[in-house]
Amino acid sequence: MPQVEVAEVHLVAHPDRMIMIEKDLHPNRARAAARDAVRLARRAMPKMSGAAARGMQPIYGKGYFGISWATEVVWYQDHGTKPFTMRSLAGKTIPMWIDDPTGQERRDNPKSKTRVTESGKVQVLIFRRAALIGQRKKVYRRDPKTGLKVLVSDKPASYPGAPGRIAWREAAQPWTRPGKRAGAIHPGNVGVRWRHPGLKPRSFLNTSMTAAAQRAGLLAERVYVADKGWRNYVRLHGEEFR
Fold it and tell me: Is pTM beyond 0.70 here?
């Protein structure tokens, strides 16, 4: 049975390439393996515009081959991220591409930009403003008798970390999932505004490198996750690639 993944040795905190060492590997075989790895990774990775996939390039030489990428998005998609509150967006106007399967957003905003993703989804460009941290939204009404403004609503504005509405609950009986309580807040709904749900790890880089090595008849043992100074780091681990 083919090996799916190999061990990863992380050499830096912000990598831009993944390398596999194979002593005495001829440059021609290394080039073929690197191109195959990039082709497999581009096919497996999630794509919106396809720019990140196009930014992945084969790297190779005597005794090694690998994949390099031009943006950190590739690494985040591969290894995933934890959920986090996007506090850096406070006070900013954020462009957002949202799915529009029914065409309602396009009808409501006929002048908005649209695009079709690599997966075929139609999206519309909208803009949302994140409030400043701690900002509140106050609503006043004018009293018809006194003519004075009266505060009728005072609640947190839509700032990163502000409490949000609970829009996702467990279904009512008899459609409640086994072991769940009807009407309970679903764990996927954190009830916090401007909260990124995180990304699930996909490991398409490792699996593509491993598959390319096996298809080239190489023994896949480990990959190194590194940057442009990888040669010095790899030598420290006792590997020779020349």
Answer: yes
